[in-house]
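Model it.
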Amino acid sequence: MGNEERIIGKHGGYRKLRSFQTAQMVYDLTVIFCGRFIERNSRTRDQMIQAARSGVQNIAEGSMASATSKKTEMTLTSVARASLEELLLDYEDFLRQRNLQIWHKDSPEALAVRNQYKSDESDTSDRSDPFAIKTANSQTAANVLICLIHQASFLLGRQIQNLEQSFLNEGGFSERLYRIRNQTRQSTQ
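Modeled.
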């Protein structure tokens, strides 16, 4: 089709999205956190892991669905963000119920996590645990994950805004089909 508009638009590419990478990190670190600090048979443990997993999986599924449904992509990206919000509440509950400190967003500790996250200079000695959740105490580990969830949520919020703008500018699959069909009809007449 050359430079012409394609019927099936671009889709996928989610692995390159910073929102996906951050949500995946949150998922991996949540598995570590729950393994260390949440009782094995606890329903909360299962729900925390599933909420983290849902954040990752919905970004991927939305990205793949984007070729034929921008609405589905926006919906699933919003579901990913909502799943991470659920997980955020679990971490806040964990800290509050144990009378542990919840870091203020501008505390030196939270700023250090954000700076490490933004600089991409995480501890390269263990890529599976760049924020040392395997060795941190429960208060530090939970707060680090809260910071990372906020980063993922922020990125997903921007992604949703971009999806909305893209939809307004370009339309969806049905509009593209109609446009291309009309162009084809006009060119054959």
